[in-house]
Structures are given as structure tokens and as C-alpha cells.
Structures
1.
Amino acid sequence: MKFPFVLYDLATLGDRCDGLSWHPFHPGVEIHYLYQTESGAAAALLRYQPGASVPEHFHTGHEHIFVLSGSQSDENGRYTRGTVVINPPHTKHSVTSENGCIVLAVWETPVELCQ
């Protein structure tokens, strides 16, 4: 990837990302990394199919989520298009998307799956 990397018109990105290279992340959830660093910082687009979920995980650093299309939910609420959610370090949650969604996720450090 060439830097600076620029995402234009972020508000409509969820409507125009079919041509990206998506990779399996969790059952029903695909990922397209924008960047990953050796220290664990990363940014990616996540595409949830209707009914898909990500199991409970622990945040070792800040996580920023921007809902680009559809909606997703966790134990704290339901988040629709245009919503920004910031999960602080030392918190955990699980995520589901009843009708599907695309989100931009930015991780300060890697997340850890709870077992």
C-alpha cells in the first residue's frame, strides 16, 4: 500500500466496496485490511453478512468503529450507518449484525478472543 493512503467520501464507502479483495475473518464476516503494522495497529473494513457475529473479544487498546452501511449491535446498543463507536482498552464485547453491515475498524493494538 502506498502512503499517504486516502479514503475519499467515507460516508458512501459502504455503497461502493464490492470490488475490494475480501478475506474470511469469522464465519459470515469478511475483512479487507487497509494496513497492518508489526506492533499490531491496524485498520480494516469488515463486511458482515446478515446474522453474522464476532465472538466475545477483549480490547488491549482503543478500537474505533465507523458504521458505513447497515447496523451492528453489541451488549451496549445498536449502531446504525454514520455511527462512531470507540471501545476503550480493557473492555470486552461480542458483535452481531442482524441485517448485515460494513464497518471501518481501527485498532490501536490487537484484540484477544475470549475463551
Note: The chain has no helices and ten strands.
2.
Amino acid sequence: MQVLIDTDPGGDDAIALLWLVSLHLQQRISLRAITTAGGNVGADKTWRNAHGLLGLSGLERIPVARGTDGTKVRDAAEVHGTDGMGGLAKTLPEPPANATHENSAATIVQQLEDEKTPVSLLAVAPLTNLAAAERLRAGILRRAERLIVMGGSLGSGNVTPAAEFNFYFDAPAAATVLSARPANQLVTLETSTTLRLTPKHVATIIRGIENTAAAMFFEKLCTFMARRDRQFHPRTEAAGFPVHDAATVAWLAYPELFSSQELRLRVEVSDGPLQGQLREHSEGTPALVASGVNAPLLLEKLGSDLSLLLRQLG
């Protein structure tokens, strides 16, 4: 299974990316490339963070393309830290000296044009790069074997009362991607917020390897994300933090964990209080929306795969 991920690391993006790395090293998937976008923090920082996570994993040869910031909407540094990694980016390896700044949209087009090797596309950032790829080559997103998006909310948002962060950050891009092809798979906040990685999960994942560099980075990142989640949601009784973006990896690798329903959807693109709102509409494009997930089993699978990775890294 060939996979491309478009991401803006970001704490929960890091969890999703490390999960993909584990599946890649297990030879369950082949991680073809990473395209980065501005979102949680600026485009230069997300590009460096993706390189750093690959360097931590010993996979420096996987190409990382760079997106553009492309919006004046505020980022999510208040949640993820000014470096996107809770102050831990400086502990990650630097990008290779020969790292290029290939354009993310052009890389998406290039990867999806290879008709001999179908590629599944995971989108866990604002959809700026995917929309730009569609503008570069109309119909290119239809060539993805699967397109699984984390974004949107059919209820309350997490950045405004109406909108989830990824869709709010670049609402026109979200509208472009959802209308570009039917049968996109979509994980909204209603599902992703149920996936909370707790201190108990983290302790189980790193048991016996607590003093290794990779395990220490992972534990510190999770501790930071849990602390920020408590800061912004003080009334939440549940421990840990939601690993929103990891849901896309799970739906790709463990589809039996999900139930879904087909809905016709539109995204509000106008400025104002409803910007980025996702809603059902009779003339909207059909999408397959995750309507339920076996959260305990998903987190068990995540923990097992991440533990395997961290032990392999030593």
C-alpha cells in the first residue's frame, strides 16, 4: 500500500506520522513522501519538524516537500508550542544538508500521476496543498486510491463555534477538495475527539525503554500536549489529549474499526462567523463520513505499533 501524507506537525500530526513510520518499517505500507503545509505553525517549521521526525526514525531518505503559509488566519502555536513540537523541535535531527524545498502541491501531482502505482493520500493539515494540486492539474485528486481527510465538524467547532481548525484555516481549499471527488473519507471532530491518548497509554508504550532518545521525545511531547489540552479545556475530566490526525492512519490500516455513513456536504467559504463550517446540503458532494469508531481498540493498535517502533529505534 503506497501512502502520501499531507501534514503540518503539530503534536497530533507527529503521532500520526510516527504511526505511519512504524507501519512502513513493518512493511505494511510504503511511505512514499511527506508534503507539509502551514497550519499548526508556519510552513518552514512544519517542513523542519517533518524532517526531524524522519531523522529520529532513521528514514531521512523519504522526501519531504514544503508548502506555503498562504493565509492570514492565526496558527495553532498556542496549542502546539511556537515550534509546533512543544519546545522539543531543537532535540530533533536537522534536515539533511542536501534536503530540497520541493513544492508540496507539485509533489502531490507527481505522486498521483503514477498510474502504475496507486497512492492513498492522508490529509491531516489545512487542505491548501491539495487544493493547489487540483488547480495545477484538474482531476488529479480523483487518482488517489483513497483520500482520507481529518477535518471539519458537523456540530461545534474547536477554533470557532462553527468550525474545526483545518477547515477554518483555509475554507476555500476545504471546499475545493471536498467537491473535487466523491467518496472522500472524512474524519470529523465528532469521531476524532474520542481518541484520547492518556498517560497510562504512554507509560505502556515506553515501558522498559524510558531512557532511550526516541521514547523520551515521545513522552515529553505527549506530556506537553496533555498539559495544553487541560489548559484549554479545564472542564474536561478525561486524561490525556485527542490524537485527531491518527484517525486517518487507523482508517487506512485498520478499517474494520470504523463505521461510516454517506453524506452530501458543503463548506462555508465566506468570511464571517460561519467560515469553515461543514454542513449537510442536498446539492453537496457525497463523502464517506466516519460515524463511529472502536476507540479502545484503535488506541491499543496505536500503542502496539508505536511501542514496536520506539523499541526498534532503541
Note: Residues 213-232 form the longest helix (20 residues).
3.
Amino acid sequence: MCCRVLWSDQTVVVTLPGEVDITNADAIREELLSVINQGAEIMIADMSKTRFCDSAGVSTLVRAFRRATSSGTKMRLAVGGLAVERVLTLTGVDRLIEVYPSVGAALGSPVSSSSADTSNSSGRSPGTTNGGG
């Protein structure tokens, strides 16, 4: 098991490691897919402690998101590091998957039927910026 998984009813928080890369991307993907297969309504991938994410990690997130969408699971990301946030922005993943500044913010957001890509910044709290400065 690569990740800590905490369930609360139909909501689950999967805590990803400090580095998400080619060395652990397959194990992370399997963990995320397992959670989806267990019927989670909302799955939050907690990347608040993740400081590095390469293309294999990005691919893992996108593949899990596609499976989640087809299974009716809402997938959200909690991202605390600017480096990871930048990778998600550069690759466009932040327009595909809802990104929040913390697990608490992701948990506090109501489940909506609208698609994440129709509201790019809806998941961010008012004081959150993209780090440009």
C-alpha cells in the first residue's frame, strides 16, 4: 500500500506521497482505482504534502479521473505545493480535475452535477492565487 486511505461514509481521502513519479505511479494508480471500485462518492487525492509530480504522476491522475467520471465518483485534488500546482496548470489537469488548496476546502465543497472544466477556479478559496508574484 503506497498511500494512506481514510474513509468517512462515501467520501475518501487518499494521501499521496511526497513524490509522485515513475517509481510509484503504478501503485498510486492502483490505489486510486481500488477506491473508485469500492464505490466512493467523492475521492480526494491529498497532494498537500506532495512536492514533486512528473509526467507519470500526471498520467496517473488523469487516468484515475477518467475512471472516476465513468463510475460516478467525484474526484478532487488537494494541492499545497506551488511546484505541483504549476505542473497541474502547465499540463491543463487543473482544468480537468477540481483543485483545492487543502483537504478541508475539498471536503467543504458541495457535490455538484456540473463538470469541473466549466469552472476553472471554482474550487479555490478567494485568497488563493496561482503563485504568480
Note: Helices lie at 25-37, 55-71, 82-91, 93-96, 103-108.
